[in-house]
Design brief:
- The structure holds 2 protein chains of 2 kinds.
- Chain A is mainly alpha-helical.
- In chain A, 65% of the residues lie in helices and 5% in strands.
- In chain A, β5 and β6 form a beta hairpin.
- Chain B is mainly alpha-helical.
- In chain B, 69% of the residues lie in helices and 0% in strands.
- Chain B is built from 2 helices and no strands.
- The radius of gyration of chain B is 22 Å and the shape is elongated.
- The N and C termini of chain B lie far apart (55 Å).
- Classes of the chains: A mainly alpha, B mainly alpha.
- The interface between A and B is large, with 67 and 46 residues.
Chain lengths: 633, 58
C-alpha cells in the first residue's frame, strides 16, 4: 500500500474518531435528540440507519454471489427497499417505538419479555442472539478482510487481523454510542463510493444497455458446475421446478439454483430484515412517525445504491473479467499444475514433481505471476490457464496476461476448489478494473459499511448477555457485574467472529448472513409482529411460535439442507450421511431454505395457540398497548 | 426487453427496484409534515436510560 492510501485511510479514521469525540462532548446520539425533544436531520437519520442495515456482507458477499448467479439477485434489492425500508418504516417503526418507550424496553429480547410478561422469552431470544449473531458478524468481518488483503498486499489472515483491530478500536473508542454524525458520515461515504462504482462500471462497459447486452451474450460461458444446477446466463432467472423422486443426475439438480437464489438469498434475507434485533431497537430511538416518513426518502435511495449497485456491478464484472482484464505482471511460471483431488472437488494443491501420472493427468494448469510493485517475498498469484488465455511476454517491460475467464473462475487459485471463492470477486474487480484512487475510496466505503454494522451488532450481542440474560437470571439491575458481563459479551462476540473468519473462509459471507436472517425471521417475526398488532397473541402462543421457528430452522440447517448439514457435520456424525432426505424423496428438498418451512410453521403455531388459549390479562394488555401500568408493575 | 435485458423476470426486478425507491421518495415527501408527535415524559425517560446504559458499557 502506498503512502497516499495510508494517509487517506488515517484521515478517515481520525475524522471518524473526531466526530465520535465531538458527539460525546456535544451529546449527539439518537437518545440525546430524544431527550432534547428533537429529531435528528432526516438525511442524517436515514444514512445512519442505512449504514447499520448495509454491511460489507451485502456489498462484498452478496455482490460476489450476484457475479456468480446473475442479476436475478435484484429481487433481493427490491425486497430490501420495499420490505426493509417501506414496510418496516410505515408499519413497524412507530408501534415498536411507542411500545418500547411505554414498557421501558431497551433491547429486542426485553421488548418481547415485557410484552408477553415472560422471563423465558426474554432469556431465550437473548441466547439466540448471543449464540448466532456472531455468525453474521463473521460474515461482515470476512467481507472487510477479503478486500484489505489485496489492497494492502498482505495475506487474508493478516488482512483479517488488521480489520479486526480497526473495528475493535472503533467499537472501544465510541462506536457503541452510535453517534449519529459518525454513522451518517459512514453512510455518506458508502453512498458516494457505490454511486461512483456504478457509473464507472457502466461507463467502462459502454453504457447501461450495451453492458447488459454484453452480459446476456456471455450465456454460453456459464461454468459447468452452475450450469447443471440451472444457471442459464447472468441476465436470466434459473428455471423454477421440483425434481421428481428418482430423477437421474444431473437432471435431479436442475432446479437447485432457483431454490438457492430465491428461498435462501432473496426470501431469507429480504424477509429476515424485519426481525433483525439491532435494526428493531433503532426504531425506538426516533422521535415520531414524522421522522420515519422523512427518513424514508433518503432510506430508499440509499438501499438502491447499496445492494442494487453491488448486484448490478457484481454481475457485470463477468464482462470485464472475460473481455477486458489485462494483467501487467512478471510471469513466474506458465505451467503450474494444481491437483483438485480424485473427485475434482477438493481444494487445489500444488502437484509435486514426483507426482503419480494419474495426479498429473487430472491436474489443472495455472500461470503463476507477481505484480510489478511486489517483491519476491510477496505471495505468488495464480490464474487458471484455459485455451482462451492470451499471454504476451514483455521485452524488457511487464508481461501481459489476458485470462478471458468469467468472474468466479478468475477466483480459482491455490487453496480454493475449482468452484472458486465468490467472496473475493468484488475486491478483485475493484482492485483490477478501477483506478487506484478508487480502490482507496472503496476501502473507506467498506470500512464504513463494516464499522457501523459491527458496532451495533456487538452492542446487541453484549446487551443480550449482560442486560437480557445476566440481569434477568440474577434479577439485579444495572450493577457493575452486569456491565462487566456486557463487556465480556462484546469481547467474546468479537473473538468468535475473528476466529470463525479465519476458519471458515470461502463462499461463506452470503450463506452465513442468510442463515442468521432466516433464523431470526422464523424465531422472532410472528412473536414480534403479533405482539405489536394482535392483543390476542399471548405468552403461550409466542413461546410456542419461537420454539417451533427456532427448532425447525436449526433442525433443517443441521439435517436437511445439504450445504449447511454437510458443513456442520452433525448429521454425518449421527447418521453417517450428509443429510437425512430419503433417496425416495426429491433431492430438491436439500436446497429448500429452512425459512420456507420454519416461518409458516411458526406463524401457524402462533395463530393456533393464540386462538386456543386464553388471552393475557386485560390489565397487562392495556398497559403494553399504551395504558396505565398494572399495580404489580 | 427493457434496459437491454430480455428475461422479464430479471428486468422486472430491476424496474421494481427503481419503482420501490420512487415509492419511498414520493411517500416520504407526501407525508413530510405528517405524524409529528409531542415527546412524552416516558420517551425522555427511555432516552435517558438508554444513554446511561451505553455510557456505562463504554
Amino acid at each position: 500500500m502506498d503512502l497516499f492510501s495510508i494517509i487517506i485511510v488515517l484521515v478517515y479514521l481520525l475524522a471518524t474518531g473526531y466526530l465520535g469525540y465531538q458527539g460525546y462532548r456535544q451529546t449527539k446520539t439518537a437518545s440525546d435528540y430524544l431527550v432534547a425533544g428533537r429529531s435528528a436531520h432526516p438525511v442524517v437519520m436515514a444514512l445512519s440507519y442505512g449504514a447499520t442495515f448495509i454491511s460489507t456482507s451485502a456489498i462484498v458477499g452478496f455482490g460476489g454471489v450476484a457475479a456468480n448467479f446473475g442479476m436475478g439477485l435484484l429481487w433481493l434489492t427490491f425486497l430490501n427497499i420495499f420490505v426493509g425500508i417501506f414496510l418496516a418504516f410505515t408499519f413497524l417503526g412507530n408501534p415498536t417505538r411507542r411500545m418500547g418507550h411505554h414498557i421501558d424496553a431497551h433491547t429486542f429480547p426485553e421488548l418481547l419479555g415485557k410484552r408477553y410478561d415472560s422471563k423465558f422469552l426474554h432469556v431465550f431470544s437473548a441466547l439466540i442472539i448471543f449464540f448466532f449473531m456472531p455468525l453474521y458478524a463473521t460474515a461482515v468481518i470476512i467481507g472487510g478482510a477479503e478486500f484489505i488483503g489485496p489492497i494492502f498486499r498482505v495475506s487474508y489472515d493478516t488482512g483479517l487481523y488488521i480489520f479486526a483491530l480497526i473495528v475493535a478500536a472503533y467499537v472501544i473508542a465510541g462506536g457503541l454510542k452510535g453517534v449519529m454524525l459518525t454513522d451518517a458520515l459512514q453512510g455518506a461515504i458508502m453512498l458516494v463510493g457505490m454511486i461512483v462504482l456504478l457509473f464507472v462500471t457502466y461507463g467502462m462497459l459502454g453504457g447501461m444497455v450495451p453492458a447488459h447486452e454484453a452480459l446476456t451474450a456471455m450465456k454460453d460461458q456459464v461454468p459447468k458446475f452452475v450450469q447443471v444446477i440451472g444457471h442459464r446466463g447472468w441476465t436470466e432467472m434459473p428455471p423454477f421446478g421440483w425434481s421428481a423422486p428418482g430423477t437421474p443426475m444431473p437432471q435431479a439438480v436442475g432446479y437447485h439454483l432457483w431454490w438457492i437464489m430465491v428461498s435462501t438469498i432473496v426470501m431469507g434475507v429480504g424477509i429476515g430484515v424485519l426481525a433483525q434485533p439491532q435494526l428493531i431497537v433503532r426504531f425506538m430511538t426516533v422521535k415520531s412517525r414524522q421522522a420515519l416518513n422523512r427518513a424514508m426518502v433518503m432510506g430508499g435511495i440509499f438501499i438502491f445504491f447499496m445492494t442494487g449497485v453491488a448486484f448490478i456491478v457484481g454481475s457485470l464484472s463477468n464482462v470485464y473479467f472475460a473481455q477486458k482484464e489485462k494483467i501487467a505482471c512478471q510471469i513466474i511460471n506458465e505451467n503450474v499444475l494444481m491437483d483438485p483431488g480424485v473427485d475434482g472437488k477438493g481444494k487445489l494443491t500444488l502437484v509435486p514433481e514426483d507426482a503419480a501420472p494419474e495426479v498429473v493427468q487430472r491436474a489443472k494448469t495455472f500461470v503463476s505471476y507477481r505484480l510489478p510493485s511486489e517483491g519476491e517475498d510477496a505471495p505468488t498469484r495464480y490464474v487458471l490457464r484455459t485455451p482462451a488465455m492470451v499471454v504476451t511476454r514483455g521485452e524488457g517491460s511487464a508481461d501481459i496476461v489476458e485470462p478471458h475467464l468469467v468472474a468466479v473462475m478468475r477466483t480459482v487459485t491455490l487453496g480454493t476448489t475449482m468452484q472458486g471463492n465468490t467472496d473475493t470477486i468484488i475486491p478483485r474487480f475493484v482492485n483490477s478494473a478501477m483506478p487506484h484512487w478508487f480502490s482507496v475510496v472503496f476501502l473507506l466505503t467498506l470500512l464504513s459499511a463494516a464499522m457501523s454494522t459491527l458496532s451495533s451488532q456487538f452492542h446487541t450481542i453484549g446487551t443480550a448477555l449482560g442486560r437480557d440474560v445476566f440481569e434477568e437470571v440474577t434479577q439485579k439491575r444495572h450493577t457493575d457485574k452486569s456491565v462487566t458481563v456486557t463487556r465480556l459479551g462484546i469481547c467474546v462476540g468479537l473473538i468468535v467472529a475473528v476466529v470463525a473468519g479465519k476458519v471458515i473462509r470461502g463462499n461463506i459471507i452470503a450463506l452465513a448472513t442468510a442463515i442468521f436472517f432466516g433464523l431470526c425471521a422464523a424465531s422472532f417475526l410472528p412473536t414480534f409482529v403479533g405482539g405489536l398488532f394482535w392483543r390476542r397473541m399471548n405468552k403461550a402462543a409466542a413461546t410456542t411460535s419461537m420454539l417451533v421457528g427456532f427448532c425447525t430452522s436449526t433442525f433443517w440447517l443441521a439435517f436437511v439442507n445439504g450445504k449447511t448439514a454437510a458443513g456442520l457435520g452433525l448429521c454425518k456424525f449421527i447418521f453417517g450421511k450428509d443429510h437425512i432426505v430419503p433417496p425416495t424423496w426429491s433431492v430438491t428438498w436439500t436446497v429448500v431454505d429452512p425459512l420456507i418451512v420454519a416461518l409458516p410453521l411458526s406463524i401457524l403455531a402462533a395463530v393456533l395457540v393464540a386462538l386456543l388459549t386464553k388471552p393475557m390479562e386485560k390489565e397487562h394488555l392495556d398497559w403494553v398497548f399504551g395504558g396505565a401500568a398494572p399495580k404489580a408493575k | 426487453m427493457l434496459f437491454g435485458i430480455q428475461d422479464p423476470w430479471v428486468w422486472s426486478a430491476y424496474l421494481l427496484c427503481i419503482l420501490s425507491t420512487l415509492l419511498c421518495v414520493v411517500y416520504g415527501l407526501i407525508n413530510w409534515n405528517k405524524g409529528d408527535e409531542a415527546v412524552k415524559p416516558e420517551d425522555v425517560q427511555w432516552a435517558k436510560e438508554e444513554k446511561e446504559e451505553v455510557e456505562e458499557t463504554m
